[in-house]
Design a protein that fits this description.
With 458 residues, the chain is α+β, with helices and mostly antiparallel strands. Helix 6 packs antiparallel against helix 16, helix 8 crosses helix 10 and helix 10 crosses helix 12. The longest helix has 37 residues. Bound molecules: zinc ion (ZN). The site of zinc ion (ZN) has 7 residues, from helix 10. The site of zinc ion has 7 residues, from helix 10.
Length: 458
Amino acid sequence: MKLISNRSKVVMALSLLILVGLLFFAYKYVKNASWWVQYPTNKHYYNNGQLVSSGKIYDRSGNILYETSGGRVYFNENKSVRTGVMHATGDLHGNVVTGAQVAFKDLLTGWNLLNGAFTLNEDSRGHDLTLTIDAYLSAEAYELLNGRKGTVGVYNYKTGEIIAMASSPSFDPQNSVNIAENPETYEGVYINRLLSATYTPGSVFKLVTAAAAIDNINDIESRVFHCDGEYDINGDIVTCPLVHGDVNFDDALAESCNGAFAEMSLELGGDLLQKYAEIAGFNSSLKVDGIETAKGVVNAKDAIGADLAWAGIGQYTDMTNPLNFMAYVGAIANDGVLVYPKIIKNNDLTSLIKKYTGSSQKRILSYDTAVNLQRMMRNNVIKVYGEKNYEGLELAAKSGTAEVGEGKTPHSLFVGFMDREDCPLAFVVVIENGGIGSRVAGPVAGKILRAAMKTMVK
Ligand SMILES: [Zn+2]
């Protein structure tokens, strides 16, 4: 009996080993198969490290942005389009990891676990992919940056579709340029600044502090703040660019009075400011059809005194990701409901994409708070930025001039939305070291929105 018992133990142990082995193989297969087949030495898909057999990438109007033929890669025929949408499409060597040809490689090569790779012949290649962006609009946005580093984003706050996306510097992906020899010109060239950069927000952050104030300071609508150009917090001075005198809440935002917002921030306290920053998307990333944005940063929770005041003014250690902030502004425009930005337009691929996206919208502000902020942002344009500069756009906006260190020209920011049913667009413009937000980033926003409106309103 003892012998049999020992034998059966050995058999059992062996069976167990085989089972474990099988499970391990199955796990590795599922986990790595897609990677094996797409590894750049797989000649079916790659030639010299380039993806040479895949579906085409189109923009929303059907313009080809990327295609493979005869073992070669072709981008759009127009150089300014190629350059303007390079970050959306990707480059020849896959250096832009958020570019569609890298980020959506699975979809483009048509790889799936059940059927394996498509064999290479004329009519069997991967899926085609249609992006939500308008290629010509994105190219125009890139040109409006005019060689300056920064980004422009425009998205439909009701559908979530990103319709313009530009990041500068860029280059023509069809013709290689010597990036290593011009490190300053091409600084961070492989980074899509809309998705992957973070910037000091400066005064655009006052839209976050204002939301917290509307919800938590009872008499905020009737409050009068007094600004002497300096706000003294136990000897630490928060400076204001102008002496604003007496300002109410609306004027405080329109004039971007640091003194008023310092007072509000101290009254709210670190916990509440932190809470509203996180509601606005700080300290977390958004997923754009699976592409993760960079995380913004706010450390208001434990900040006190002048640090807390500056945190509420968009300085201190605050950092924002442009796309994330555009989504927050889009939520304000959409009566408090954030519709998550997306970049893939195809409907037939919805099931494949769904695993990435989950829910497509979320209420982040109450209806009343959002409508209040809409009214205040519209007031900013009418009272300060100049309605004549943005005529017909029904523009609501906030500017930011973000200090980025002693002796450096501040970053220029302008965010907002069009309050038009037929053209529900939110936007962000960041021009690195560009200067005053309303004067430098503002006109760029005006031009791109006017161009966008032409494509939407016939
Ligand atoms: Zn002031």
